[in-house]
Automatic annotation (TrEMBL):
One of its GO terms (molecular function) is metal ion binding. Transmembrane segments: none annotated. Pfam families: Arginase. This is Agmatinase. Signal peptide: none annotated. Gene3D superfamilies: Ureohydrolase domain.
Length: 86
């Protein structure tokens, strides 16, 4: 079984508001076979009656993760190369 390489959508060709909204702009994988990491957001809004809106948490996490860059320039380390696949 081939391992799938982690790749981000290119921000210069795909704007942040387009396409699906996966975590860290990773390419969406239909088949989870061969992945090292899989993340799933589970909206749960029944825990408190006075703070509604927690169901928006997973979508907001994915939206904010789009701002993460592939390379941390001060240390020249790459998150992408350290992850085998996501």
């Amino acid at each position: 079984m081939d391992k799938k390489e982690y790749q981000q959508y290119d921000i210069n060709t795909v704007p942040r508001f387009a396409n699906l909204n996966p975590f860290m702009r990773a390419t969406y994988q239909e088949d989870p076979a061969g992945l090292d990491i899989a993340m799933a957001g589970v909206p749960f809004d029944l825990g408190s009656s006075f703070r509604t809106g927690s169901r928006h948490g997973p979508a907001q996490m994915r939206e904010m993760s789009r701002m993460i860059r592939q390379v941390h320039y001060p240390s020249i380390s790459s998150i992408v190369s350290e992850w085998a696949s996501i």
